[in-house]
Design brief:
heterodimer, A: 548 residues, mainly alpha, Cytochrome C Oxidase, Chain A, two-stranded antiparallel sheet, 65% helix, B: 338 residues, alpha+beta, Helix Hairpins, Immunoglobulin-like, Cytochrome Bc1 Complex, Chain D, domain 2, 3 domains, five-stranded mixed sheet, 7 helices, 12 strands, binds copper (II) ion
Chain lengths: 548, 338
């Protein structure tokens, strides 16, 4: 949908109501905090992406070529940590959650704006500390830190875990803030049955962050206690149990997968609703499935331990529960597809991205189910199949949703429109590059190539070459996309308040919004995305608001 | 069809009975996935064309799904996924229960190699010889960090964990040489921790093993002709160790209980623990009894079994386990050898 030529750019908005570097660094405005997060996570994404390209270049040849084994091991450790903890976990909640949660609730800000700013600084501190600890300590354990490798080799793992806990603390605080905001700051008339699905997903995510993150903090403390005081907790040489570590680690790290995926699902629900002009088909089912994933996701961690010597019975329990998560996800997929039915579908960049999200979720999800089928996992565990599976889920679907969020809310946040054509071609590159990178990795996993391999047998080469080429196409697409957006920031056409004619609550105000989001107090009379009949009078005041 | 699918999916050739089970289910899952994707794509494509937006502010009617549809959406994935789970769990249970007549081999992972030991010799580094068509059980442990014993052609994998024994087993269905990888990241040369499984016809395997044993006896006798126990197999080593470490103060080998339970007929027997639980005395259990006796205590004994953790090496523990295993039946041992 091209923006109307006559669209006007509001005179006053949250960018120019106060100015100066300090007005940003000390801001309590959730939108500005969101944008600062945006800058931080995109930096992390670029760093993690460049590391990935380095890894792929090394794997072009079966023999060591660019870097030695030690450097390679550090590269993939750094890549995993940066992508998981510094990009994926905060990406959607901290950026788009922060920006849109209050707006979707018809509120002026989150419940605790100061805490919100503190979360940001804690995140930055934790991120820098973690990076320093990994580089300085030469950590080469992979992002999973399995003991006894991580505690017996001479590397400084405890500070890294501390760093991760600091980053985690920031998501605990953000999570608490979101939960309280959702409970207390809903506009009059906005009951739970009318919450936008994005809010439901943020709510589920927040619960997981608050409950699961402390566990990684405890693990960090235990590892530190073992290293410093010599307690035999995990190291078998001191009477400890290395598998206990794996249980604790995955008790945190499996739910974290849903911290990444749930917000992505929320974004896609908003995008499908807007571009199909329908509230998501089966709204209630979707909300229930979201909470179902958040809950059951806590009890499936053992599917990472099928070949670690866990009892057959335990494996069975974890296997069945993993299937349930799959069922909840499948319900969501069906509902998104059915949203097109009797809708009014508009093909736009965010819509295309949401469809790609579905594509990656179907394959990422089904291969996840396949991995949870215990007998199959015996072959695939710790091979490239697993690598391909979680990249399909996390880089594939979560990244598509992140990009969908960027393209869907770009005009809302900045009041300008990117070039659809450039954006679409960037997205096409990303989609093709992504498939070319990771489909060969599934096949490598089938062949039996283990993960975290610095060099490999010649029989694995052709697929690795394909994967490396794909990674560069993917990288090209990402940079193209970045430049298209940066260009639009300055020279994009003025978008107008609601270029997509969305009836999500966050569009009930000017784009970009004013400091306190709305010109008039919001009263909600209807569920979100109700496209029956003509648009309700939108309370967008044309009168500029002064600085408050 | 299956041959074609195997090539399409780049799966290695199938060389064990478990591989046949795994691949059969894999194909089913793969075909279903592709089918699901195709149907969803077609349906979405149809909706996309059929329900394209006509006016900018086009209004749509809400559509409330009937209950039957919701039930359908839940039931279909539930039934399919639970079906796969059931088959997978059945196969996994089968895989976790090696037949009692399996040939035992010990595999010890160590940065960055595999050591394979037959209870009565020989030893080998990185190459595992096994007979075709016979169940072979691999008892796995590690001397340093966690490794994982992985044979893609057999579709089996099992982590090697320091301080305990885990097991995997297979029946090789064809002769040949197959790759062994370490699947768990273990540091610098993780990707060079490569091994081979050589599957041989049964007679050839027996000949090979006999020849190897002779050779290693000869080699060891050459090295030190005075050492009598150069001939030692794991069992006799275990017998000697039991003497040296004073296990006999509390354990007997003639079937009568002493301060501790007797070792005769202990292996694979059912033991009742102080918790009331019943467990089978397999290798993992026997090893635990020495390394961490507090974890599972046999009911009915007043003395505590002392922990030998740190006092016995992995190899010594394995030798003791082999010795205990050799003490079968009720009657006194005619000789320790199997
Ligand atoms: Cu998991
Ligand atoms: Cu390894």
């Amino acid at each position: 949908m091209s923006p109307a030529e006559s669209a006007h750019f509001p005179r006053w908005h949250f960018f120019n109501q106060t100015t100066g570097v300090m007005s940003w660094l000390t801001t309590l405005d959730h939108k500005r905090i969101a944008l600062m997060y945006f800058g931080a996570v995109v930096s992390a994404l670029i760093l993690g992406g460049l590391l990935a390209l380095g890894i792929r270049l090394e794997l072009f040849n079966p023999e060591p070529s660019l870097v030695d084994a030690q450097t390679y091991n550090r590269l993939f450790t750094l890549h995993g940590m940066v992508m998981v903890f510094l990009f994926m976990v905060p990406a959607i909640p901290a950026v788009f959650g922060n920006f849109f949660l209050p707006m979707m609730l018809g509120a002026k800000d989150v419940a605790f704006p100061r805490l919100n700013l503190a979360s940001f600084y804690i995140y930055v501190t934790g991120a820098l500390f973690t990076l320093w600890a990994i580089v300085h300590g030469g950590v080469d354990t992979g992002w999973t830190f399995y003991v006894p490798y991580s505690t017996t080799s001479v590397v400084a793992v405890a500070p890294v875990m501390l760093g991760i806990f600091i980053v985690g603390l920031s998501s605990i605080l953000t999570g608490l803030n979101f939960i309280v905001t959702t409970h207390t700051l809903r506009a009059p008339g906005l009951n739970w049955g009318r919450l936008p699905l994005f809010v439901w997903n943020l709510y589920g995510t927040s619960i997981i962050s608050v409950l699961a993150t402390p566990v990684i903090g405890i693990v960090a403390l235990l590892v530190a206690a073992e290293i410093i005081f010599g307690f035999g907790l995990f190291d078998p040489a001191r009477g400890g149990d290395p598998v206990l570590f794996q249980h604790l680690f995955w008790f945190y790290s499996h739910p974290v997968v849903y911290v990444m995926v749930l917000p992505a699902m929320g974004v896609v629900s908003e995008v499908f609703a807007t571009f199909c002009r329908r509230q998501i088909f089966g709204y209630k089912m979707l909300a229930v499935a979201t909470l179902g994933i958040a809950l059951v996701g806590f009890f499936v961690w053992g599917h990472h331990l099928f070949v670690a010597g866990q009892s057959t019975f335990d494996a069975g329990i974890f296997g069945v529960l993993s299937m349930l998560v799959g069922v909840f996800t499948a319900i969501k997929v069906f509902n998104w597809v059915m949203t097109l039915y009797k809708g009014a579908v508009d093909f736009t960049v965010p819509f295309a991205l949401a469809c790609f999200f579905l594509y990656f979720l179907i394959f990422g999800g089904m291969t996840g189910i396949a991995l949870a089928v215990i007998s199959l996992d015996v072959h695939w565990h710790d091979t490239y199949y697993v690598v391909a599976h979680f990249h399909f889920v996390m880089v594939g679907s979560v990244m598509m949703a992140f990009l969908a969020a960027v393209h869907y809310w770009f005009p809302k946040m900045f009041g300008r429109m990117y070039s659809e054509r450039v954006a679409l071609s960037a997205v096409a590159f990303i989609f093709i590059g992504f498939n070319l990178t990771f489909v060969p990795q599934f096949l490598l996993g089938n062949m039996g190539m283990p993960r975290r391999y610095h060099q490999y047998l010649p029989m694995f080469q052709s697929l690795n070459v394909a994967s490396t080429m794909g990674a560069f196409i993917l990288g090209l697409g990402m940079f193209l996309s970045l430049f298209a957006l940066l260009w639009a920031l300055k020279w994009g056409a003025v978008a107008g308040d609601n270029p997509f004619h969305s009836r999500g609550y966050e569009w009930n105000t000017a784009s970009p919004p004013v400091q306190h989001n709305f010109h008039t107090p919001q009263v909600i009379v209807d569920g979100p995305h109700n496209y029956e009949g003509p648009p309700a009078a939108q309370p967008t005041a044309k009168v500029a608001h002064g600085v408050e | 069809m299956t041959q074609w699918l195997r090539e399409l999916l780049f799966l290695p050739e199938r060389a064990s009975t478990f591989a046949d089970r795994v691949d059969a289910l894999h194909y089913q899952v793969f075909l279903t996935t592709m089918g699901v994707w195709a149907v969803i794509t077609l349906v979405m494509g149809y909706f996309f064309v059929r329900f394209r937006r006509k006016r900018v502010e086009q209004s749509t009617e809400p559509f409330h799904p009937p209950l039957s549809m919701e039930v359908f959406f839940v039931a279909v994935p539930l039934v399919v996924f639970l079906g796969w789970f059931t088959i997978g769990f059945r196969d996994f249970t089968w895989y976790r229960n090696p037949p009692p007549d399996a040939i035992d081999v010990y595999a010890t992972g160590k940065k960055w190699m595999w050591k394979f030991t037959y209870p009565e010799g020989p030893n080998a580094i990185d190459t595992l010889h096994v007979p075709v068509g016979r169940p072979v059980r691999v008892l796995i442990t590690s001397r340093d960090v966690i490794h994982s014993f992985f044979v893609p052609a057999f579709r089996v994998k099992q982590d090697a964990i320091p301080g305990r024994y885990t097991e995997t087993w297979f029946i090789a269905t064809r002769t040949g040489v197959f790759d062994v990888f370490c699947a768990e990241y273990c540091g610098l040369s993780h990707s060079r921790m490569l091994g081979k499984v050589v599957v041989m016809p049964v007679e050839e395997f027996e000949d090979w093993r006999a020849a190897e044993r002779e050779q290693s006896f000869a080699a060891r006798l050459d090295a030190d002709p005075t050492r009598d126990e150069a001939r030692a197999t794991l069992v006799t080593q275990g017998e000697r160790l039991a003497l040296e470490k004073g296990c006999g103060r509390c354990h007997t080998v003639d079937g009568t209980p002493h301060l501790g339970p007797t070792w005769r007929g202990l292996y694979r027997s059912m033991q009742t623990l102080t918790t009331g639980e019943n467990v089978v005395a397999d290798e993992a259990y026997l090893t635990r009894s020495m390394m961490n006796p507090g974890a599972q205590k046999v009911a009915g004994y007043f003395t505590d079994m002392p922990s030998y953790f740190g006092l016995l090496t992995n190899a010594e523990a394995a030798a003791l386990v082999e010795y205990i295993k050799s003490l079968k039946g009720e009657e006194p041992a005619p000789g320790a050898m199997r």
